Amino acid sequence: MVGSDLESENGIATSDLNGLDYKKLEENGTKVILIAGGTKKWHNDYINGNETSIYELTEDGFVVVKKQKKQNMGNYKTLKNFLNYTYDNYRAEKYDLVFWNHGAGIFGNEFDELYGGDYLTTIEIKNAFEKSKFSKDNKLDAVVFRTCLNGTIEMADTIKDYSNYMVASQEVALGYNKDSVLKYFNDVKGDENGYELGVKFVNGYKEYLNNLNIKYIYRTYSILDLNQVSELETSVEDFFESINLKNNYNKIAKIRAQMFQYGGDEKTYDSIDLYNFVDKLKYLSPDKGQKVLDNIKKTVLYNSSTDTNSRGISIYFPYNAKKDEKNTILTSYYNFNNLDKYKKFINEFYSMQSNSTKKHSYEKNIISYSENSINNSADFYLELTDEQLNEYARAEYVVFLDHKDGTYVPIYRGRNVYQDSNLLKANIKGRQIEVHDAYDGSSTPITLIEYEETDEHIKYLTYILLKTEDDVFAVAEASIILNKDTNEITLGPAFVKSNADDDKALYNVLVDYDDYESIYFCITGYDILDNDGNYNSDWERNETIEYFYAKFENLSFDLVDFNNGENEYYAVFYIYDVNNNVSFSNLIKIK
To answer: Which residue among 48, 151, 331, 385 is least crowded, i.e. fewest CB within 10 A of its CB?
Structure first.
């Protein structure tokens, strides 16, 4: 357990540990051995932050069984020594290992706050196992990742020779300091195997979130049979080797561009669902593609996901990360012992992507709503030339409210762009929301980022400030849910960063709204036109922020009526080509 900022700032590690019940564990034939470190502050009195000692859970709580000086939890030797100490001193029929901390896809996990954020890379994790007493002939029964984003084929490859099962999340895993995910180990019987332990953990995580009585929390935990991973990897290799990349680059790029990416589109992870990706590419090599899908079904034994497109195992595919980040990742990716043909494929793909600098101009071919004579099925349009259409991968848009003071307020960032022949079309009517304060009757449109749409609902993200009665503030990323059948709008879950000072940190610490008495919605204005009246793609650098204040008991939401004639709205398309270059349209007035 590496507490890091999850513990020092939020006490989540302590909350998880406090859920373990010695009496139940003892009755069921289970012992818990803990090595803990990597945080500036523990929110309990049983772990010594000046040491990196090993503890055993007893009837008196966690007690030190091996006193050790402070160690770097991001060093493979710390993990190796812990594995060996446990094996030598606690003989058992089965051993399971839990990794507790941040996770970062193919990068690894266990970020030590005391050693500059040093962490265990996948190479270091493999090295620790190789030098431990766990091997192909003496496997752990399960490795559980209480971390983010580690549910990848690359991590499965890392530990496949040292464990029978792997339990991990494809997406961000959430933390909360008023309940425990680990308490579900209390119910594991000593004669149960790693799969059965994994089922209880995954279902426990689901219950952990459900107990918060908040809908629409994203969840993607699965259990993998690591004994099937080698066969899966072979089929992945055969599939990608069979595809002619040169002849199919644009097709592959368009599919990759539209894939859901775990951890956020703007993050470096470039982690996508393997099943969903191969399923979309399967027509390029049907038999070998089907073999991959069949092997995924054999490998993923249990999948608990709120998203039907998350099938239990992810893979790295370079696309959205910045060029220097991709260079670094691809260099480290070559340290994997397997997936050599896949490495070659993604390296060639990235070379083709990075060597293209062509950008298109979309400034002259706008069709405004009022001018078109096609139909009224969309609120705004953009026409593509044949050349642009060939290079087109995906599009988003931003809708601005004209403040009439030289600034524009971005009220909506949408992904619901659809292609109709050579036209890109988008709608915002019936999608934009304003917040209402029942106390004084005030209301305002708020900035929404379209995150997820199903047949039943649309989920938006927005940024808020939360205030306690003692005037303590927290910046949070909140969700707002629109029920498409009833038009009911509710405030969904909100998350803060585990480390508020880290711009790259994920919003993954759940907020308890009961801890706060009021909420501020951030409303940001920008100068989006330059001195010549042209669209400025750097508009996000010039911001003025206002806030809409409401107390929770007065808070409600309404759909915006775009037909009231009081406000003027403009849209800008973000158009991404197959090389992930982005271009912008001029302002399009929405009637």
So the answer is: 331
Give, as one character, the DSSP assignment of residue 122: H
582: part of which helix (H) or strand (E)?
strand 582-584
Q: How confident is the model at residue 308 (pLDDT cuts 50, 70, 90)?
A: confident
Burial class (CB in 10 A: 0-12, 13-18, 19+), 301: middle
Is the confidence at residue 533, as pLDDT, over 80? no
Which residues, 6 or more positions from 279, have their beta carbon under 8 angstroms from its beta carbon?
289, 293
Residue 248 makes CB contacts below 8 A (sequence gap 6+) with: 284
Does the CA dihedral 150-147-21-46 come out positive or negative?
positive
What does residue 438 show for φ and ψ, rounded to 5 degrees?
-65, -20
What 3 state SS string does 81-106 have? HHHHHHHHHCCCCCCEEEEECCECHH
Contact at 8 Å (CB) between 353 and 245? Answer: no
Phi-psi region of 263 (alpha: psi -120 to 50; beta: other; left: phi over 0): left
Neighbours of 436 (CB within 10 A): 18
Residue carrying the six token digits 């029942």: 438
How many other C-beta atoms can be found within 10 angstroms of the C-beta atom of residue 391?
Answer: 21
The rounded distance, in Å, linking the Cα atoms of 362 and 418 is 17
Side chain identity, residue 99: F
What is the mean predicted confidence (pLDDT) over 124-145?
96
458 confidence band (pLDDT: 50, 70, 90): very high
Q: Copy the structure tokens of residue 427.
A: 């709608």
Could you tell me which residue, 376 or 165, shows the higher pLDDT? 165
Whether the Cβ atoms of residue 6 and residue 17 lie closer than 8 Å to each other: no
Q: What is the spatial distance between Cα 404 and Cα 387, in angstroms, rounded to a whole number?
A: 37
Distance CA 353, CA 420 (A): 26
Q: State pLDDT tens for residues 209-241.
A: 888 766 678 899 999 999 999 999 999 999 999
Beta bridge partners of 98: 144
Q: How far is CA 302 from CA 52, 100, 136, 169, 185, in A?
A: 35, 21, 23, 12, 17
**Contact indicator for 142, 284 with CB cutoff of 8 Å:** no
- H or E segment and range at residue 141: strand 140-146
Extended beta strands in 403-552, E state: 408-414, 417-420, 423-426, 433-437, 443-445, 448-453, 457-467, 473-483, 489-497, 507-510, 518-526, 543-551
Q: What is the pLDDT of residue 236?
A: 98
> Strand order of the sheet with strand 54-58?
33-35, 54-58, 61-66
Tell me the average pLDDT of the chain: 91
Query: Where is 76: in which H helix or E strand?
Result: helix 76-89
Q: Which amino acid is at 380?
A: F
